[in-house]
Amino acid sequence: MTTENPTSLRIHLTQYLLLRNRLGHNLADAARLLPRYVTYLEELGHSTVTIADALAWCQQPPSPPGSSVWPRRMGAVRGFARYLTGIDPATEVPPIGLLPSRRRWRPPFIYSPDDIAALLGAAAALSSPQRAATYSTLFGLLAATGMRVREALTLDSSDIDWDDGVVLVRESKFGKSRNVPLSDSTAEALARYASLRESFDCTPGNESYFVSLTGRRVIYESVFEVFADLRRGSGIGRQSTVAPRIHNLRHTFAVTVLLQWYRDGEDVAARLPRLSTYLGHRDPRSTYWYLSAAPQLLALAAERLEPTLPQVNS
DNA sequence: GGTGAGAATACGCTTCGGCT
DNA sequence: AGCCGAAGCGTATTCTCACC
Predict the structure, then answer these.
(1) Which nucleotides of chain C have an atom under 7 angstroms from any protein CB?
(2) CB atoms within 10 A of CB A241
(3) What domain range includes position A51?
(4) CB of A78 lies under 7 Å from some atom of strand C
(5) Fewer CB within 10 Å: N-end or C-end of chain A?
(6) Is any atom of strand C within 7 angstroms of residue A263's beta carbon?
(7) What keywords sit in the KW lines (predicted)?
(8) pLDDT on residue A132
């Protein structure tokens, strides 16, 4: 079974991706990276996945040593190789730990209330009234609810329950759906935009809540460019060592809620599951991740925990 | 059973070139 | 000018498994 030819390797790749997709995995990385890996093997005239070839391909320039790209490529190859072992026994599966991914922690930017006001003000001052309404409502929604950008952009008009003031987030990260309750002021802002939206020139069949000037659903890349302009123009984060990002609005939301609970003397551990559900996390362990975002919050947490710590000195 | 570490996976950030 | 979409890379969240 050592006579696999390049063509069959490519066919196996197609079948592998198809199978994983049917099992519910997107595997966008593998779909993008592995065809190049197969091409690499074909050019070498190799028809079997080996650890040596995998290492050589993963460490190809221009990505520098230590880049997150090397372990990312290796992860894709490992998955494919596991699948291939059932087809070609000569396949070598790169072991776990070969090109391990190094976790990096980059402190997130936490927006002050003034920062958020400046961002929303700058968005509302965009020259086109439609864009001003779209982006001030979008960034306002992100800041007020901690929703992910993708979740906001995939919202349809019908996903908003105006009677109960709730937004339905459908099929979000890892296929989960949830309801996000809105404050009165947020619901009012969304209703104002919904009313304006009726005057926008939408392409037929477009149900998206947020609409671009072309009448279509707003895409992430456009949001990024607008955000970058607004950030530069308003001077947000100019003194910060880390650049403010859109997703930091979610960090800021979570940290603000937690801080408020600590200040109010709430039983944070007991209430945390509610925040986890609100943010769309599977369990509170993911939410604890946000604790490391704000030193101020850690200090408060430590202060609260101190009386319960065992006394080690006599 | 609970927990921590690291792998696996999906969403986010950024750039770029092309289109309208 | 604004939007679109692909590509490469970064980060957030879940899964898995060894260890206690």
Answers:
(1) 1-15
(2) 7
(3) 7-84
(4) no
(5) C
(6) no
(7) DNA recombination
(8) 92
Last residue of a domain, one of A84, A103, A130: A84
Residue A173 a catalytic site member? yes
Residues A300 and A267 reside in one and the same domain: yes
> Nucleotide C7: nearest residue by CA–C1'?
A32
Distance A271 CA to B1 C1' (A): 23
How many other C-beta atoms can be found within 10 angstroms of the C-beta atom of residue A63?
14
A115 compared with A6, residue with greater pLDDT? A115
Does residue A225 sit in the same domain as residue A253?
no
Cis peptide before A62 (omega within 30 of 0): yes
Taken in order A177, A270, A292, A68, the sign of the CA dihedral is: negative
Instruction: Say if A92 falls within a structural domain.
Output: no
A108 CB closer than 7 A to any strand C atom: yes
CA proximity to A136, closest of A233, A226, A247, A257 = A226
Active-site annotation holds for A290: yes
| A98 occurs within a structural domain | no
- The Cα–Cα gap between A252 and A50 comes to 46
**Does residue A75 form part of some domain?**
yes
Which of A73, A197, A250, A251 is flagged as catalytic?
A250
Q: Is the CB of A203 under 7 A from strand C?
A: no
**Is the residue at A100 inside a domain?**
no
Indicate the pTM of the whole model.
0.77
> What tens digit of pLDDT does each residue of A110-168 get?
888 888 999 999 999 988 899 999 999 999 999 999 888 888 998 999 999 999 999 98
CATH number at residue A184: 1.10.443.10
| A77, A121: one domain | no
Give A106 CA → B13 C1' in Å.
14
Show the CA angle centred on residue A101, arms to residues A95 and A103, nearest 5°.
145
Q: Whole-angstrom Cα distance, residue A91 to residue A156? A: 46
| pLDDT band per the 50, 70, 90 thresholds, residue A308 | very low
State the Cα–Cα distance between residues A256 and A291, nearest whole angstrom: 11
